[in-house]
Design goal:
Layout lengths: L2 H21 L6 H8 L5 H5 L3 H24 L6 H18 L1 H7 L12 H19 L5 H21 L1 H6 L5 H12 L5
Length: 192
């Protein structure tokens, strides 16, 4: 693929990222991405033979964004493993709430070719990082299971908060106490 072709391929992904941020995953049609990129509606098929491949490339960008934010948040290794998990959890929930369309796309593995375009290579390291932190915080626990349960809990908090359900049910005005409660439930109460 020459530079011009690589440029158009990158532009299609960039337009898709912008579109999912603005209008959500449901707006990601090949025709709309092509229109916004200023190319014929058939042009995306040249670089992405299936719609799923283009969606996977867009989701990969989202995982890259989330991964960079998580890396920045947990970089300070002077904090305890629990502090680093709390930082990761905060980033995860804020990302989910501020980039809802991208977040929805990223975790819809029923829509994506999860091994296509290196998507697993960008998504699995995030989970593996959480597992390593859980292992350090709770050496007595089965880290993959605890990390999976914590991740599912954080995902549910983000989803239900985004829909307005948790505010209604709990009367909470802020999501942070719910995130702390999830950490306590999976890691044990925070040492005082």
């Amino acid at each position: 693929m020459d530079e011009q072709e690589q440029g158009l391929r990158a532009r299609l992904v960039s337009v898709g990222v912008e579109l999912v941020h603005q209008e959500g995953a449901q707006a990601l049609t090949l025709r709309e991405i092509a229109r916004r990129a200023g190319v014929s509606h058939g042009a995306p098929r040249r670089y992405f033979p299936t719609h799923l491949e283009l969606l996977s490339a867009i989701a990969r960008e989202g995982f890259g964004e989330l991964g960079a934010e998580v890396e920045e948040a947990v970089r300070d290794d002077t904090g305890s493993p629990r502090d680093r998990i709390a930082a990761l959890a905060g980033v995860y929930v804020r990302f989910a709430l501020s980039r809802r369309g991208m977040y929805e796309l990223m975790f819809r593995h029923d829509l994506l070719e999860s091994n296509g375009l290196g998507l697993r290579g960008t998504s699995l390291p995030l989970f593996e990082g959480l597992v390593a932190l859980v292992r350090a915080a709770r050496p007595d626990a089965r880290a993959p299971e605890v990390a999976g349960a914590l991740w599912a809990n954080l995902h549910g908090i983000a989803q239900l908060w985004g829909w307005g359900s948790l505010q209604l049910a709990t009367g909470a005005g802020d999501v942070d106490p719910l995130v702390r409660a999830a950490l306590d439930a999976h890691l044990g109460p925070e040492p005082r």
